[in-house]
Amino acid sequence: MSSTRTLFLVSSCLALTLISLTLVLKKWHLGLREEGGGDDGPDADLKLDLTSEKLIQQLRERQQELLPFYLNSTGDQTGNETLNEEVLGSEQGIGCSDLSGMTVVDLLGSGYTKTVLKVLTQQGSAVALKSVNEQGSDMRTCLEDFRDPQGCQELVSFKLRKEVILLQRLKHPNIVELRGQCRESGLVGGMVAVLEPGTPLQMIQLLQSPWEERFRVCLGLVRLLQYLSRSPLGSVALLDFQPRQFITVSGELKLTDLDDAVVREPSCRIDSDCLLQFPLRNFTLPCSSSGVCEGLNQLRNLYNAYRYFFIYLLPHQAPALLKPLVEEIMNTTGELKKNVEETLEDFEKVLHEYKSGLHLQNLQPSVIKDYAVVRGVKTAGDMDYRCWPSYEQQACVLSVHNALEAAHICSSHPQCTSFSLSRQRTWTGRRLASFRSGFSQMLPDVNSTLYMRSQAGVSTAAQL
Ligand SMILES: Nc1ncnc2c1ncn2[C@@H]1O[C@H](COP(=O)(O)OP(=O)(O)OP(=O)(O)O)[C@@H](O)[C@H]1O
Ligand SMILES: *[C@@H]1O[C@H](CO)[C@@H](O)[C@H](O)[C@H]1NC(C)=O
Ligand SMILES: *[C@@H]1O[C@H](CO)[C@@H](O)[C@H](O)[C@H]1NC(C)=O
Ligand SMILES: *[C@@H]1O[C@H](CO)[C@@H](O)[C@H](O)[C@H]1NC(C)=O
Ligand SMILES: *[C@@H]1O[C@H](CO)[C@@H](O)[C@H](O)[C@H]1NC(C)=O
Ligand SMILES: *[C@@H]1O[C@H](CO)[C@@H](O)[C@H](O)[C@H]1NC(C)=O
């Protein structure tokens, strides 16, 4: 029986691989099929010339768009540094020759422009391959306009090339890591970026996760925005700023879609030239004496962070004593009263208080007296109950600063009769505590401490 199941598993894996490879090969053929299929008649030729003229024009514009990223902010502005991505690329690890030995295991995501596959390298480690999405609307629109598969491949590839250059220039823990690239891969017919693999950001899932994890995402975002506001390329604005431009890697937020990033801040004559428009709110910034809307890029990013992330993730279930600080952040970002640097300071302050347990000062220390402590013991045969937002779906697992905070939580849950503290810690260094309504056995475990609520404690709560 188990062998048929294994066979089934193997064949479904194979099927997936085959589907993906077929997809990949189809792309490859599409990439090759460019020269044939001409129109007939001199009029058609003329029309073709005009459209190809237009396509060449667009290709030129995309090329121009890449130029600023090759130049140092201090460098000369002649634009004469050659567009030599090979030179840049040579510092990178995984290259074209490594691609052929890879196995496609999953489709991670796709958008208007790009497709991302999860693949295993020959050494068995997983990476994400980003390439042009042949079925995407960017490609479709181009093909409708120009009927030139190779030209369109090249045109759409510029977005990925731009992204790769940006990923080479911008290095930060909250930006996806570029592990390599290949300019002309037979595998997918064009540019491929090799990235660290992650999980697409699931807003719904994140909404149901503990505040600590939601705060982590927001903090990561602000740290990213602070870096972008003074990056090696200058102040970077993300024009398309939606959750789907981000992934998480072990709970840490990372930016993955950079093709809509811009570097220069708009020039201006008067303040009203520096208008930041959002659907529900407009802001006008001062025009600097040098005729630039200074700070516009970072404030655009910050307000987008507020409206796409903070509103949903930050206030809900914040620890009671941190609420004033969190409300303050909501207000200053929602009104753009502070810049990114100052906002980051506010975030780091919240993190500091949370980590140090300062927000727990008011807890009654006597509560712990209701508990008998058994060190070096874990439980088995637990009777679990669910709580929210638990780190485990079928049980009540919460992060706590110390045993006292856990005791307060247990005493506030009528079902809770005991809890264990493990050595396992969350990203802030808080400890994970498991709360339960009963257990059948105690087992030795050096890494666990059991706290049993006294009968008196339980019945007092029951009376309340
Ligand atoms: N390294 C990665 N690991 C896992 N998933 C990823 C990774 N990079 C991107 N993705 C997923 O692939 C999707 C498409 O990537 P990307 O956003 O770069 O393409 P796009 O065509 O520019 O998308 P859009 O149309 O949303 O702008 C992303 O929304 C994300 O969910
Ligand atoms: C870019 O900057 C580096 C260091 O600041 C410098 O060594 C290099 O010559 C610059 N290149 C150009 C093209 O300006
Ligand atoms: C760019 O550099 C090349 C060779 O390095 C030179 O021939 C050319 O004149 C330069 N162009 C400009 C605009 O400086
Ligand atoms: C923002 O500005 C635009 C253009 O000036 C205007 O049409 C729009 O009504 C303004 N929106 C808000 C919410 O003020
Ligand atoms: C910020 O606070 C002020 C004063 O309390 C209030 O009027 C305003 O609506 C708040 N703005 C946001 C975005 O919360
Ligand atoms: C206890 O924790 C240490 C360090 O985290 C680990 O090496 C060890 O295996 C754990 N022991 C048990 C019994 O889980």
TrEMBL record:
<dbReference type="GO" id="GO:0015031">
    <property type="term" value="P:protein transport"/>
</dbReference>
<dbReference type="GO" id="GO:0001501">
    <property type="term" value="P:skeletal system development"/>
</dbReference>
<dbReference type="GO" id="GO:0005524">
    <property type="term" value="F:ATP binding"/>
</dbReference>
<keyword id="KW-0964">Secreted</keyword>
<keyword id="KW-0892">Osteogenesis</keyword>
<keyword id="KW-0808">Transferase</keyword>
<keyword id="KW-0333">Golgi apparatus</keyword>
<dbReference type="GO" id="GO:0001503">
    <property type="term" value="P:ossification"/>
</dbReference>
<keyword id="KW-0067">ATP-binding</keyword>
<dbReference type="InterPro" id="IPR011009">
    <property type="entry name" value="Kinase-like_dom_sf"/>
</dbReference>
<keyword id="KW-0653">Protein transport</keyword>
<dbReference type="GO" id="GO:0005576">
    <property type="term" value="C:extracellular region"/>
</dbReference>
<keyword id="KW-0325">Glycoprotein</keyword>
<keyword id="KW-0732">Signal</keyword>
<dbReference type="GO" id="GO:0030154">
    <property type="term" value="P:cell differentiation"/>
</dbReference>
<keyword id="KW-0217">Developmental protein</keyword>
<keyword id="KW-0547">Nucleotide-binding</keyword>
<dbReference type="GO" id="GO:0004715">
    <property type="term" value="F:non-membrane spanning protein tyrosine kinase activity"/>
</dbReference>
<keyword id="KW-0829">Tyrosine-protein kinase</keyword>
<dbReference type="InterPro" id="IPR042983">
    <property type="entry name" value="PKDCC"/>
</dbReference>
<keyword id="KW-0418">Kinase</keyword>
<protein>
    <recommendedName>
        <fullName>Extracellular tyrosine-protein kinase PKDCC</fullName>
        <ecNumber>2.7.10.2</ecNumber>
    </recommendedName>
</protein>
<dbReference type="InterPro" id="IPR000719">
    <property type="entry name" value="Prot_kinase_dom"/>
</dbReference>
<keyword id="KW-0221">Differentiation</keyword>
<keyword id="KW-0597">Phosphoprotein</keyword>
<keyword id="KW-0813">Transport</keyword>
<dbReference type="GO" id="GO:0005794">
    <property type="term" value="C:Golgi apparatus"/>
</dbReference>
<feature type="domain" description="Protein kinase">
    <location>
        <begin position="102"/>
        <end position="464"/>
    </location>
</feature>
